[in-house]
Amino acid sequence: MEQYAQKKLIIFDLDDTLAPSKSPIDAEMAGLLVKLLAHKKVAVMSGGSLKQLELQILQNLSCTDTLLGNFFLFPTCATSFLRHQNGSWHVVYKEELGAKEKQTITKALEVALLKIGLPSEKIYGTRIEDRGTQVTFSGLGQDAPLALKRTWDTAGEKRRAVTSILEGSIPEYAIRIAGTTSIDITRKGIHKGYGVAQIEKHLGVSRDEMLFIGDALSPEGNDYPVKEAGVLCVEVSGPEETKKIIRIVLSTTAGR
């Protein structure tokens, strides 16, 4: 499609876009990303931490330093930005939350959970996680089995009930539903839309030259700020659909 051919930078969400939640990209996806990096700049904007991006993507990507120069990481909803230069990853910016901010968010989450009576059920790992630049709530815990996560809040009703309370108690923060069981909380205005502005600033790519691919583009989703920023967005249902989009983008580069 011609509209894809004109895009200089492709932005991906991670969980349920490039890979199943908290899972590594498969070999086919890794191969497609390497091919894409030979023609386009590529960014990943994820609610996950840098560690998650390393485990899910970087450790499974066989790529030269030259191609990694076209790869840009925006962990924790673009509250930080890393780029690969001179053989290693360098932090461009990092919007760290202060200790009091984290305490405020954590307390508000605890109160919200009590108010709606959301049962703790069986929790796998940390339920409220400090990701440095973001606090993330995971309904079943960070280490919950994927099969359980997929059925816990399919319609998003449980998390919408929590976010509704949080929007009243901590209005100074951005609160977004993410993945299958998560809620991401950052400073107001520091989200994936902020990441788009930083791409323009640091990489010189305008938003009309970007394409975003993600699974959470509804108004409460953590991908929605990218849509609000005016970037062309494609919503996908999972990695297999993402692969189809990548193949279409690659087909537009033939002979270029």
TrEMBL record:
Pathway: Nucleotide-sugar biosynthesis; GDP-alpha-D-mannose biosynthesis; alpha-D-mannose 1-phosphate from D-fructose 6-phosphate: step 2/2. The keyword Chaperone does not apply. It is an enzyme of class 5 (isomerase). Its cofactor is Mg(2+). Its EC number is 5.4.2.8. It is found in: Cytoplasm. Mg(2+) binds at D13, D15, D215. GO terms for biological process: GDP-mannose biosynthetic process; mannose metabolic process; protein N-linked glycosylation. Keywords: Cytoplasm, Isomerase, Magnesium, Metal-binding. The lineage of its organism: Bacteria, Candidatus Ryaniibacteriota. It comes from Candidatus Ryanbacteria bacterium RIFCSPHIGHO2_01_FULL_48_27. The keyword RNA-binding does not apply. NCBIfam families: HAD-SF-IIB. This is phosphomannomutase. Pfam families: PMM. GO terms for cellular component: cytosol. Alpha-D-mannose 1-phosphate binds at R131, S182, D184.
